[in-house]
Amino acid sequence: MRDAANRPAYLDNHATTPVDPRVLAAMRPWWELNYANPASIEHAMGREAEEAVEEARRHIAALIGAEAREIILTSGATEANNLAIKGAARFAAPEGAARFAATQGLERRRIVTVATEHKCVLESVRDLEAEGFEPVILPVDGNGMLAPGTLREALEVPTLLVSIMAVNNEIGVVQDLAALSAVAREAGALFHTDAAQAAGRVVLDVEAMGIDLLSLSAHKLYGPKGIGALYVRRRPRVRLAPLISGGGQERGLRSGTLATPLVVGFGEAARVARLEMALDEGRIAGQRQRFLDALSAGIPGLRVNGHPERRVAGNVNITLPGGVDAQAVMAAAPGVCVSTGSACSSASIEPSYVLRALGLPEAEARATLRIGIGRFTSPADVDRAAAELARAWNLVRERAAAE
């Protein structure tokens, strides 16, 4: 492992964020001093662990304007997304049709999502086709936005669930959740959002935005990996079928012993994010502009993808001019950590499906980099990254011209 002095400039904060030192400090006692199972409420250490979990749950809920009892702890946003989508569908499946009809009034088999969603959402929706549901994948415009009219047209067929990502993990665009959820509610469909990239970056309020289900991940907001949450609306109550059977933890929706240190870390990360979000985003926006100015000077003609205004401050998704392959540029810039797209899709040799959904030709999609600037990105980091990426682009372009 590299020491701090030799560490590359890290600009991949959409893939994961570093753990905030305050989060590490909050977690440490729950590994070293009180390692009790929070379900062991028969003794003092277990009760202390349980209270620490509940305090963390309150902080997580406060970040999104929810009640603590509406927060179901999971292993991350991928599990939360699966639980929201498959759990809602399976509760409404034929064997549960009678109980479902009592709340919805009719059988709904359509599940609607968007072409630019995270893989775990797209695959969850597609998996349900084998169980008799109808997956519908909606297109976005050239800026990555879903028009409410496009959703309204899809919901002319009775629909069970709509799932739309709050902030895209590749191009950073912010969907208008309040407008889209209103369309879903008018049609009688549940509304789920994957907010892993949104929490701590944009204000979320499940009541004001009309959200029924919302997925979170701690490691996207300077917390630990391996812990996430699903918000499940209590009034009117949203019902799900659990994916995991066991001891009945988390209201029976997610059995398994909770990892107290991770939960505490998630809670502290949420607490800090709620207090410092505006300060973070202002600072990050300045760093983003500094990076773009420097990179544009070194690479004339680069293009930023996604909506120019409705986007999170730290996202820079750029297509390099001249058809220069982004993977080759990354290989020629070992002192910089960036990516070509979602970390969950990086093993694929195919160009980003998100960029293709925006209408980018394959060659341009292969020439695109994703940069994520975060809380701990320094001016020196952005200056170094811009200089090294520009140098690498020129080097790769010159090599290609010489061949």
From TrEMBL:
Identify which top EC class this enzyme belongs to: transferase
Q: Which reaction does it catalyse?
A: (sulfur carrier)-H + L-cysteine = (sulfur carrier)-SH + L-alanine
Protein's UniProt keywords contain Mitochondrion:
no
The UniProt record lists the keyword Iron-sulfur: yes
InterPro entries documented for this protein: Aminotrans_V_dom, Aminotrans_V_PyrdxlP_BS, Cysteine_dSase, PyrdxlP-dep_Trfase, PyrdxlP-dep_Trfase_major, PyrdxlP-dep_Trfase_small
Keywords, in A-Z order:
Aminotransferase, Iron, Iron-sulfur, Metal-binding, Pyridoxal phosphate, Transferase
Q: Which Gene3D superfamilies match?
A: Aspartate Aminotransferase, domain 1 (3.90.1150.10), Type I PLP-dependent aspartate aminotransferase-like (Major domain) (3.40.640.10)
What this protein needs as a cofactor is:
pyridoxal 5'-phosphate
Q: What is its EC number?
A: 2.8.1.7
Give the GO molecular function terms: transaminase activity
Cross-referenced Pfam families, in alphabetical order? Aminotran_5
Span of domain Aminotransferase class V? 10-384
For this chain, the family text in UniProt reads: Belongs to the class-V pyridoxal-phosphate-dependent aminotransferase family. NifS/IscS subfamily.
Q: What does this protein do?
A: Catalyzes the removal of elemental sulfur atoms from cysteine to produce alanine. Seems to participate in the biosynthesis of the nitrogenase metalloclusters by providing the inorganic sulfur required for the Fe-S core formation.
Its protein name is Cysteine desulfurase
**Can you name the source organism?**
Pararoseomonas baculiformis
